[in-house]
Amino acid sequence: MRDPQLTVVIPVKLGGALGREMRGALLRLCLVALDCQTAPRSAFEVVVVDDGSDLDLDALVGEFARRHLSIRPRTIRNTGPSHGQTAAYNAGIDAARGRHVLLTTDDSMLAPDCVAAHLTAQAGRMAGAYVCGVERQYVYGVLFRNISSGSLHPRGDLAVRLFGTLLGFADIREAAEQLGFTDWTITPADVRTRFAELYRLSALTPSFADMYEELRSDRTDLRWLSVRMGNHSIARDALLRIGGLDETVPGGNSDQDLGLKLIDAGVRIELDPRATSILIEHRRDPRAFADGSGLARLAERWPRPDVLNLHAFFSRGYGRTIASYRQILERA
Q1: Strand partners, 271
Q2: Domains, in order of start, for the chain
Q3: What pLDDT, in 10s, does the model give residues 77-97?
Q4: What pLDDT, in 10s, does the model give residues 281-322?
């Protein structure tokens, strides 16, 4: 069989009742979105990397595919316990048969023409580049315990309130109820028939909009901050040449480390607005917002002003912008 042109890599870890319920629902939506791609089935493959799930993820994905999908994802498993998202990406890249890899996440839904857009970009003027698509956020997904069934987290959930605070909400649950957004469920059928509407209902938050504005500009000094895995593609060999992703950098900051490695290796970082997707926000462990180990590791690896001051960038939460960070560096 002829090898595909592109491999979609999805790191997955389903653990605990809450993780299995919401992340399982998100994974199904992610796979259905990939099943809706307009690109020929022979042009791409899907590799799901099981990073230590506490269930048989291969059986779950296989059964879902047999019942609901025309694609047949491959599931591979990191050896031993969970090694983290970065190691899972590397395992997927190693296993990829495609010349290019598209690094996505299990909480992202790629638009029907997203894979085709990446294939076109990588075969055209963006050949050799790290190609970034445009991802909008379904922010009210954070309210749901299961976004497909519509079950919600308990009122007052600390992690949900913290996420809302980072977006500027005094009470995101109350705001959502007043606007009717607690009815905004997403089912596999919605992904197949209403993707354009779901994309329109999603938000381009300030930090995401700023990343894309940065990539549209001629500025290159902080372009590495626009690397955010979810809807990005690159030649597999280019990633292997720079050693893949650094597994010593915690997953929350592996995007920035990859961006720095790409720039250091002379790989262009480009925007293709035709490649679109939706990121479904979901409840995260509050401790993840306070973990500074990734920034410390970045500072150790890249001891330069634009990295050493990253705490000032991330302290602004979801309202952070590269433009404002540039001003901070100019004043420093």
Answers
A1: 132
A2: 6-139+200-291 (3.90.550.10)
A3: 876 666 788 999 999 999 999
A4: 988 776 665 567 889 999 999 999 999 999 999 887 777 899
Residue type for position 119: L
Q: Which residues pair with 108 in a beta bridge?
A: 279
Q: Is the predicted pLDDT of residue 202 greater than 80, yes or no?
A: yes
Q: How confident is the model at residue 168 (pLDDT cuts 50, 70, 90)?
A: confident
Quote the tokens at residue 54. Answer: 């506490």
Q: By CB neighbour count within 10 A (0-12 exposed, 13-18 middle, 19+ buried), where does 28 fall?
A: buried
Q: List pLDDT tens digits, range 215-252.
A: 999 999 999 999 999 999 999 999 999 999 999 998 78
- How many other C-beta atoms are found inside a 10 Å radius of the C-beta of residue 121? 22
What is the enclosing helix (H) or strand (E) of 196? helix 195-201
